[in-house]
Amino acid sequence: MPPLITSIADEAAIAFDNLSDRASNLVHPTLRLGVTGLSRAGKTVFISSLVHNLLHGGRLPLFEAMRSGRVSGVTLEEQPDDAVPRFQYEDHIRALVRDRIWPDSTRAISELRLTIQYESASGWSRMFSSGKLSIDIVDYPGEWLLDLPLLQQDYRTFSANTVELARTGIRSELSTAWLEESAKIDMDAPADEMTARKLSTLFSEYLRACKADERSLSTLPPGRFLMPGDLEGSPALTFAPLPDMPDERPPSGSLRAMMERRFEAYKSVVVKPFFREHFARLDRQIVLVDALQAINRGPEAVQDLERALADVLGCFRPGTNNFLSALLRRRIDKVLVAATKADHLHHESHDRLQAVTRRLVDRAIETIGRSGAGIEVMALASVRATREANVKENGEDLPVIVGTPMAGETIGGERFDGNRSTAVFPGDLPEDPSGFFRELDDPSLHAHLPHLNILRFRPPKLEETGDGLTLSVPHIRLDRALQFLIGDRLA
Ligand code: GDP
Asked: Of 50, 72, 207, 264, which residue is least crowded by CB atoms under 10 Å?
């Protein structure tokens, strides 16, 4: 029998949160926009650049309300949730614009409120709308989303799934120490804190090794084992899955019983509050993916990204019989999956990156067996750190990108100091994504997969206008993303 995934109290709390959100929405229209993605996908940079461009009248030709002059003002306001850290926009933008360094990445949830004053396009709407829309941007680690499926798993299922995966492929190399230690202990012996800690540490080290491994991107729950926040060392984070558990219930007071109880605690003190207080209140969502890095790392990394996308999208497009849909009162009606850092490619490849990502998303949706309606896919760069040029090589024009590699980056043995700029031929993505996926799926064709030169560049130097004003952060297709995510709410 599936475990009871929620209690009446949870449902009532969600309903209440949504009701009070709705009531305040009537007076003051608000849109809660979730920004997520696995770590280093580009969430912090995306939000910083988006807000900077809106506040400073950036170049956003495809964002219709702005282009047509209907936006009369954009301001940052105090964010409404007192218990959630504010997204430190000012610090991040100072790093980006003044110091030309990348800001600190997302480690936990944070929030920022932006209010747009606008005039409706139609006279009818002008009569009824307040001409004001607040956007609460909620930034949270994608790793936390991967925890949601745990709500419907009991400890036995969680252990079986996790151990099975740990015994396959690359992961089997990384999980040896943890699994060997687990095999040595008697799980039905009286519970002992030091054993629990040792197993939990070895399990966390395994998760961390998966994430650090060059060949794969980790996509494994529990998410807080990698990003513990203020729960580090608490019992709810000091457990581990156990291999090959017997069928009968654990003896009371045993290590197995303790592990099971802590797993349940993880769900109730970590996963449920996140679900109830944050996830269940989102209206729209952008999922950022670093598809370029995965392509560059090789087939296993791409397959891992595909699996992670399936898990993430499963949270947003729950089918009718999915446990999440039973809990969600309001539905996220638009999801944008955006491949970030497109400035690492020449513009000819931007559409190709988009096509590869779209195919990745379609395949992910196929594995979760649900309709993909409402999911849009784009390639963008929140910050354009490069410009394009052509160089002549052997009489041929070669499209290159020019930027300042970060200190310590090397190409062909040459090491950069963080000040000198250089031209790089980034390589091409395939014109036809089907060929790419054929090569991906067939190990004998792996040698044909594209190789890209991905360097880390410093953020760009911003131009100043004649009167000393700094222009807004350059980007690629951020305006398209904005139009999709909020354009209709400013119509
Ligand atoms: P987070 O973990 O999702 O918050 O990731 P960040 O926003 O901190 O981004 C991680 C890193 O990716 C940054 O430090 C940059 O090096 C790089 N990055 C993110 N967005 C862009 C972009 O639009 N262009 C370029 N060139 N690099 C980016």
From this structure: 72
Which pLDDT value is given to residue 2? 42
> Using only C-alpha atoms, what is the Rg of the chain?
24
Q: Which residues pair with 32 in a beta bridge?
A: 136
CATH number of 8-140+278-384+476-490: 3.40.50.300
* 3-state SS, residue 390: strand
How many other CB atoms are found less than 10 A from the CB of residue 343? 25
Assess whether the previous peptide bond of 222 is cis (omega < 30° from 0). Answer: yes
Of 40, 144, 421, best ligand 1 pocket probe by most atoms within 8 Å of the beta carbon: 40
Which neighbouring-strand residues pair with 398? 391
Domain ranges in the chain are 8-140+278-384+476-490, 151-273, 387-448
| Residue 283, phi then psi, degrees to nearest 5 | -100, -40
Segments in the chain below pLDDT 50: 1-5, 8, 320-321, 372
Q: What pLDDT, on a 0 to 100 scale, did the predictor assign at position 3?
A: 41
Q: Do the Cβ atoms of 482 and 63 come closer than 8 Å?
A: yes
The conformational region for residue 285 under phi > 0 = left, psi -120 to 50 = alpha, else beta, is: beta
457 ligand 1 Cβ < 6 A: yes
The DSSP code sequence of 328-384 is: -SS---EEEEEE--GGGS-GGGHHHHHHHHHHHHHHHHHHHT---TTEEEEE-BSS-
CB–CB of 424/456 below 8 Å?
A: no
The best mutation among 312, 341, 380 to test binding of ligand 1, ranked by most ligand atoms within 8 Å of the C-beta, falls on 341
Q: What is the reported pLDDT for 48?
A: 97
Closest CA to 490 of 21, 54, 87: 54
Both tokens of 32, joined, read: 């809660």
407-431 as b/e: b if 16+ CB within 10 A: eebeeeeeebeeeeebebebbebbe
Q: 139 C-alpha to center of ligand 1: Å?
A: 14
Check residue 4 and give its pLDDT. Answer: 42
Q: Which of 156, 155, 171, 160 is nearest to 207 (CA)?
A: 171
Question: If you take atom 22 of ligand 1, which residue's CA is the nearest one?
Answer: 341
Query: Which residue's CA is the nearest one to ligand 1's atom 19?
Result: 42
Ligand 1 in reach of 343 Cβ (< 6 A)? yes
Q: Smallest Cα–Cα separation from 407: which of 392, 417, 396, 415?
A: 417
Dist. CA 43 → ligand 1 center (Å): 7
Q: Is 37 in the pocket of ligand 1 (CB under 6 A)?
A: yes
Predicted pLDDT of residue 422: 93
Place of tokens 């984070």: 237
